[in-house]
């Protein structure tokens, strides 16, 4: 039986999986987490174990897409 959608989106993603989910390298993932204030904070489970919730990464991606789409509309209308 599949878990409900809410559980799927709160899935914890380790760095390699999070980077693949976003389509970036692990280095870029860490750069984003340190320099982009809108990027979700990593969750530190232990001294050597960090990750991100899938739902937080999805929300961040949606915001980026909506900004790009908004700019594309602005550029084509003016």
Describe the structure in your own words.
- The structure is a single chain.
- The protein is α+β, with helices and mostly antiparallel strands.
- It has four helices and three strands; from the N terminus they run αβααββα.
- It has a three-stranded antiparallel sheet.
- The radius of gyration is 15 Å and the shape is globular.
- The mean pLDDT is 85.
Residues in β-strands, percent = 5-15%
Sketch the major β-sheet.
Answer: 3 strands, antiparallel
Please give the alpha-carbon distance between the first and last residues.
Answer: 51 Å
Mind telling me the C-alpha Rg?
15 Å
Helix amount: 55-70%
The shape is globular
Order of helices and strands: HEHHEEH
List keywords for this structure.
3-stranded antiparallel β-sheet; 78 residues; alpha+beta; 14% strand
Short description:
By secondary structure, this protein is of the alpha+beta class. The chain has four helices and three strands; from the N terminus they run H-E-H-H-E-E-H. The chain has a three-stranded antiparallel beta sheet.
